[in-house]
Amino acid sequence: MTFALTTVNAAPAPLQPDALGVAGGVVEPLKKLTRRRFAIGLAVALGAVMAWAPQAQAQGARPMTSEITRADTATLGRWLHSWVQPDGAIHGFHNHSVWGSNPFLIGDFTAGHSTFASPLLPGLARALKRRSDPRGQRLLESLVSFQCHSFQADGQFQHIGFQIGETLKRGLIHNMVPCVALSETAQWLDEAKNRALRGEIDRAVRRNLEACDKIYGTGASKGSVANQEYCRQWARLAHMEAFQHREWDDRVRHDLDFLVANFHVRGLPDEQSAGALRGTGDQNMIEPAEYYGLMIHPLTLAARRYNEPKYFEAALSLARHVIRSSWVDRHGQRRLHRLWQRVDGQWIKIDEPMLIGGMGITLSAIESLHRARPDAELARFLDETDRTYAHYQSPTGFFLSASGWGSEQDIIPSTAWQSHDLYHLLARHGAGAGFWNTLFAPDPRVAVVFGTSLMWMEAGPFWNLGGYHTAHGMELVGRKDRMRFGIDIPAWIGSERQMPAEYTMPDRPRFLRTDKDIRHLSGRRDLTVLSATERPPAPCTHEHLCSTSWPDYHTGSSEVDVRD
Fold first, then answer.
1. Phi and psi at residue 469, to the nearest 5°
2. What order do you get walking across the sheet with 274-279 strand by strand?
3. Residue 292 pLDDT > 50, yes or no?
4. Which of 22, 54, 271, 408 is deepest in the core (most CB within 10 A)?
C-alpha cells in the first residue's frame, strides 16, 4: 500500500504578514520528518526532532530520502483526464472548498460538466504547443467542441452551476471563465492547422459575451462583484489578443479604471498591498485569496497592451496582498489565506478553512506578473507554493482539497478547482517528455482520502463518499462516466431509490476508525492514501504508520511512500 500522509486540521503556526520564511513546529512522535521540514524548521523544531529521533528509529520510522519541490504535473493531468468524457465533458463532484458547498447539500445530484473546469483547455493547448501528440490533439478538440456548443437558449453557457449543480442557470463568473479559457486556447493553436477550431472559439466567445452584456449589464458598476467583473475584462483582453483586434479596448480601460478606483483597499496587510472589496455594498469583506488571479491577470495584460504602468502597480499591490496575507500551516507549507473581514471596525485576517487544491489561477497570475516585472518576493512565494503542491499531492495525481473544514470539503478533490492547478503548473514548469503517455495511461489503484468522519474513495470509473465501518455518513456513490450520483441505500431497506448495481465498486475497501488509527479491514489493498485527520492509517497487524514491513500491502515495491 502506498501512503501519502498529511494531517491538516490543526491550528496554523503564527506568521508575521510580511514574513516569508517557513515557520517550524514541534514534531509529534509518530509523524515522519521530511528533509524539507528539517531544513526549514525553527530551532524548537530541531530540538523536538532530536528528542524524537531515537524513539522513531526504535519503531522503524523511515524519513523521506529526498525533498520533493514540485508536483507531478503528468499524474495530475492523468487524474483530470479520468473524468473527461468521450464528448469532451469534464465531469466531477464539484466541491467548493472555499464557500463550503457542493450540489448534494442543496439536493442536486449532478456530477456532470462544469464550465469552471475549462482552464484545463488552455493548459493542454500549451502542453501540445511544446510537445505535439495526436492523442492530445484529439482530446483538446473534443474539449473545445463540447464547450463551444453547450449553450442555453439565452446565450449563456450550459453547466455553469459548479457547486450548485444544474440547479443554477445564471452567473457571470461561470460564463466568463470558459470565455477566457477558450480564447487562451486559441492563442496556443496554430492558426493554419486549426482555422476551423479557432473559428468555433471566436463565435462561441462572442455569442456568450454579447449575451452576458444583455443579462448582467455591459460593464463595471458599484453593483459588480469584483472578481466576476474583472474576469469579464480578462475575457475581452484574451479574445483581443487571440484574434488580433481592438474592438473592446475603450471598454476595458474604462472598466479597469473604475474597478481599481472603487474596489481596491490599501493597507491590507500594509501600505504596499491592496485587497479588493468583494462588492462595494459591503465595505467589510475582502475577496478570498483564490479569486485574485481573476483580477491580476487582466491588469497585467492591460499594462502590457496599453503600456500603462498604473496597471502593473495595481496588479502588484494585489499580488502583495495575497503573498503577505499568506500563512504557513503546521506542516511548514505556504498557504493562501481565506479572506480579510472587518469586525467592530477592526480588520481580521482569517486563514482557515481554505482550499489547497485550486490555488492555480491566483498563482498563475502571480507567475505572469513576475515574468512581466521580475520581483524577488513573487519568485520566492511561487517557489514555496510549488513545495505546497508537492507536499499535498496524492500519488494518483490530485491534491488534498482543503483544510480547516473538518468535513467533506477537506477531502473531495474537485476537477473544477484542480484544472486551475494544472493550468498554472504547465505554464510554470511545462510538460515533461512523458507527459502525454502518463496522461493517457489509467491508474489502476484505489485512491483514498481519509477525513475526520468521512472518506473519499475512487478507482477506475467508481467513486464514493462515506463514513468508516460502523460509523456511516453521507454514503454517496457515483461513476466518473455518469452525470448523476446518488445515495448508497442498502438492499435490505428495499427502497426504490437504491442505486443500480453498476455503481458499486468491486471489492471496495473497508476501513475502521479506532481511537488511535485507521485500520484496513477488507477489500482491495492496492491503495494510495492522503489523510486530513489526526489518526494515521495503520495495517491491522501493526501498531502505527511508521512500519517498514508490510508484506501484504506492497504493490511491487519494497518502499512505502509516506509524505507527512
1. -55, 130
2. 264-266, 274-279, 282-286, 339-343, 346-350
3. yes
4. 408
**How far apart are the C-alpha atoms of 563 and 34, rounded to whole Å?**
7
Sheet with 510-513, side-by-side order of all strands:
510-513, 518-522, 537-538
Residue 206, C-alpha cell as written in the block = 462572442
Alpha carbons 168 and 98: distance in angstroms, whole number: 18
> How many Å separate Cα 188 from the centre of its chain?
23
Residue type, 428: R
Selection from 331, 311, 330, 308 nearest residue 319 by Cα: 311
pLDDT at 183 over 70: yes
Q: How far apart are CA 5 and CA 54, in angstroms?
A: 22
Dihedrals φ, ψ of 151, to 5°? -125, 145
Residue 68: pLDDT band with limits 50, 70, 90: low
Residues 6+ apart with CB under 8 A from 452: 9, 406, 407, 410, 532, 533
Looking at residue 67, its pLDDT comes to: 60
Please state the rounded mean pLDDT for residues 369-373: 97
Residue type, 257: D
Retrieve residue 426's grid coordinates.
504547465
